[in-house]
Write a structure and sequence with these properties.
The structure is a homodimer of 331-residue chains.
Chain A (H helix, E strand, L loop, with lengths): L6 E4 L3 H11 L5 E4 L3 H10 L16 E4 L2 H7 L2 E4 L3 H8 L10 E4 L4 E2 L4 E2 H8 L7 E5 L4 H5 L4 E7 L2 H11 L4 E6 L2 H24 L3 H22 L9 H11 L5 H10 L4 H8 L4 H16 L4 H11 L4 H11 L2
Parallel strand pairs in A: 1-2, 1-4, 2-3, 4-5, 5-8, 9-10
Antiparallel strand pairs in A: 6-7, 8-9
Helix pairs in contact in A: 8-9, 8-10, 8-11, 8-13, 8-14, 9-10, 13-14, 14-15
Chain lengths: 331, 331
């Protein structure tokens, strides 16, 4: 297939940087919006992002860099968003260019806190993007391993699989296998929920639970995820596919996951506020927990792990007691 | 329920030691057969096993220790075998006492290499134990964490769940949640296959594949396990229950697993023979791979991971090339 799409990545963090790296392997030009003028100048002068994945060298002639979001959105046929969900709403407030005729891909995996919506739904409801033009780019994939060119698998989802296939071809290379899916709702909720389960894994670790418990927790988490997503959007899916189970495992077993680290601090006795201050950032799963919990009050899926994390984060409940009760519910 | 069964554990390794520890929490007497007179004398004098989980202190008054397998089998209503599968056949050659009227529980999770049978089938076909009297005791459970009294979940399976329930009550305590199942074939095959997948995880690690690949490998492994077990014994089961997925994860993600270590050495370039010599023991998954592969030649389940491990272990194929091909088949 001829590669004629203009693609832009929006975001300056490690996942955005990894996505740009993958695209530049096969494309002559990739649009890249980031807020920081300093970072842009650094990349132009030194061929790498100063703050994230700085071992990755770019051919800057292939980068159309700008800190003007309108310029980059106007340029692109496909806009891949990798801005933390907590900043998405405010970043987009500067936008005057329309998304009409463009495709918008969420690589964010969070809930937009101002709205309680997953990113795809947010673009649909707040930016008038047709659901047919909304895609999801998901793992299982640590950005750091993309930097090392270690074999990784991505999943691109669009309701219309031909659109997924078209975009997937831009990602395929020696170290990336890119799969497609038509489950834009399920893959994005899976990516949201797995951050919550990573917080749970962190709390358990912080409380002194071991590997035996962790395996039971993950086995229960994937069954809980299946029940939850089925309520949100019922369709034929195999929850053990890489985009769901693989993504859960790569995060839940990662010692680098910010969500797991956040949970670990809570398990060790930090308050939510002090853990957040200590991390000097807010883990995606923090917002996701509230929104996912509230949505489920209407849906009614059985979600003991989500409920436990919610009660610890938002009801100020004691992690040790909550996990003792949770452990009785797991099997 | 009144606890009136006489239970014995057969084996002297870490898993046998962990099982005895769990049983002595609630029982006044537990039978324990092990081959080594030296180890028995050491336990009697020093209250702990000299070679395995030596931090675990026993109340030796509660142990009926013997190196005479006939004495212990004659004593017990329930015989729990935790002897490595490679030694089971020769250990039982000394047996003159019959299993009539007794229950036999496999805590071995291997294939008896002389016969190609899983342990339950072996006892049925070679020791005339009725299938209704055969049980399986499975994890996800590292013995080391039982020694530390870290919360762990066991599964006891009998075709008749009342028998499973009866035995499960002997294991339940503050740090053990014991679940029951009626899937004696599936749980035992799951425990066998997970060792093979742990070898695969080790090979991948040794070859330099990272966490992204590992999560895809495990996600494919659980789907492969489901297909395989369905061919062996079709029944209603949720492959994401702890006894299947949990057991796969606790082994596949363990840096202590002998099977994973064995695979890791192969990935790093050791030959099969030199890896075995270096480890001074043979990982359970080594035999399991051959038997599981041969059985599947008749069954015809799609098993790319099993096939890859088989070709490396028994066809002397190059791990790097085989995994490159395997990676193309995973999704």
């Amino acid at each position: 297939m001829e590669k004629t799409l203009k693609i832009a990545v929006l975001g300056g963090g490690s996942w955005a940087t990894a996505i740009v790296k993958m695209l530049t392997e096969s494309m002559d030009e990739v649009g890249w919006y980031m807020r920081s003028v300093y970072a842009i100048e650094h990349i132009k002068r030194n061929d790498h992002n100063p703050s994230y994945l700085s071992s990755v060298e770019f051919d800057v002639d292939r980068l159309k860099l700008s800190n003007d979001i309108n310029e980059i959105v106007a340029y692109a046929d496909v806009c891949i968003f990798a801005i933390p969900s907590a900043f998405l709403h405010s970043e987009l407030s500067a936008l005057t260019v329309s998304f009409e005729g463009k495709r918008v891909v969420s690589a964010i995996k969070g809930i937009v806190p101002e709205t309680g919506l997953i990113v795809g739904e947010y673009f649909n409801q707040h930016q008038n993007v047709d659901m047919d033009d909304i895609g999801v780019l998901t793992g299982p994939c640590h950005a750091e391993e993309v930097a090392l060119e270690r074999l990784s698998y991505l999943t691109v989802a669009f309701a219309d699989e031909t659109k997924a296939k078209e975009l997937a071809e831009y990602f395929e290379n020696d170290y990336i296998n890119c799969k497609i899916s038509d489950d834009i709702i399920g893959t994005e909720y899976a990516a949201v929920l797995k951050n919550i389960y990573a917080i749970a894994a962190g709390i358990a670790h912080g409380l002194g639970y071991g590997d035996n418990f962790q395996s039971v927790l993950m086995s229960n988490a994937i069954r809980e995820m299946k029940r939850y997503i089925k309520k949100v959007h019922k369709m034929k899916r195999n929850i053990n596919d890489s985009a769901y189970l693989g993504d859960l495992l790569v995060t839940g077993y990662s010692v680098f996951s910010r969500n797991r680290l956040f949970g670990n601090m809570l398990g060790k006795g930090y308050t939510v506020r002090s853990a957040q201050l200590e991390m000097s950032m807010i883990a995606e799963g923090y917002y996701a927990t509230k929104s996912a919990y509230e949505l489920n009050q209407k849906q009614g899926a059985k979600t003991p792990i989500l409920d436990a994390v919610h009660d610890i984060l938002y009801e100020n409940k004691n992690p040790k007691k909550i996990f003792k009760k949770l452990a009785e519910k797991l099997d």
